[in-house]
Amino acid sequence: QQQQQQLGSTANGDSSRLIAPVRVLVAGGGAAGVELCFGISHRVQQETGLQVHTTLIDGHDHVLPLGYGGMAVRAVQREAAARNVQLVTGRRVKAAEAAAVLLDDGTSLPYDLLVLATGAAAHPWLCDPAQTDLATDRRGFVLVQDTLQTQQDPCIFACGDCCSMLSFQEDGVGTFPPKAGVYAVRMGPVLEENVRTVLAAGRATAPLKTYHPQQTFLSLLMLGDGRAIGAKWWLAFTGAWVWKLKDHIDQKWMKMFELPNATEPEEAAAEPVKAEAAAASAGSAKDDSEADPRQVAAALLEGETQDESFHTKLEHLDRMHHDEAFRDQVLAEAKVYDV
Length: 339
Description:
- Helix content is 37%, strand content 17%.
- The chain is of the alpha/beta class.
- Strand 1, helix 2 (31-48) and strand 2 form a beta-alpha-beta unit.
- Helix 7 (272-280) crosses helix 9 and helix 9 packs across helix 10 (324-334).
- The protein is globular and about 65 Å long.
- It starts with a helix and ends in a 5-residue tail after the last helix.
């Protein structure tokens, strides 16, 4: 309530009632937590004039899942240091009270705004034998075959965050794919086709399509200030051009749901960078096949210091996606930036 009064006072031009900085606490250091951490901090500061102290808590020894790579982790750490964001790693929130959270080491952290972004968790009823006998992994996610059919009943399908693939189990826990929307949306077309096939055939033993998760994906993390961090392979690149890419892909995704011209599911699941680079190639000033790997690494990783067009950067990423030898050359040159 105190912070609501402060926000209202600032909006009305009265800064005399400002007592202390707004304390924002975000629990969960995955992609969502990182975006919310930087986004909320920037929004409050820009729109109200209030100072913000932001803390991001994660139970692992670093923010972001392992698949992002060290360069992306260090990019987040640099942004945090530059923007008064405290990263608390290796600690978990044990309890949340009205104005403070208690960490598992006994530390109490006060907050004015608490945001929980702790990732996917299984539905409790799936772990209750009285409600279902569907097999789950040790975390409670439904075990599915590559056809997305459950182990117990081939007429029951599961996809997205609620499932765990039998093909990727280690010590009773699904290790791949991660709980991320980029995988869930690509399961959707497989699910639809298989359900239609079973219904049309009248039997669950009909030949079905299998889902094969991609090994890498482009992750774009909004920083709230007109920039973003992009991560793919083990590279991480930061700048306004990355935000432009993220915004363009997100806008394009939302337009798919504007009836009656919605895009087909298979097209929706297409590689974003591939689609964008293909669309931009007609206006390219230079054939990307002539690009030097060292210059490409510099263009991607030196941010806004490189005078290179947005579309040209997309073409670099697209070529790296398709040309493994060229990608390896760029990654080798990029090592000098991994500090």
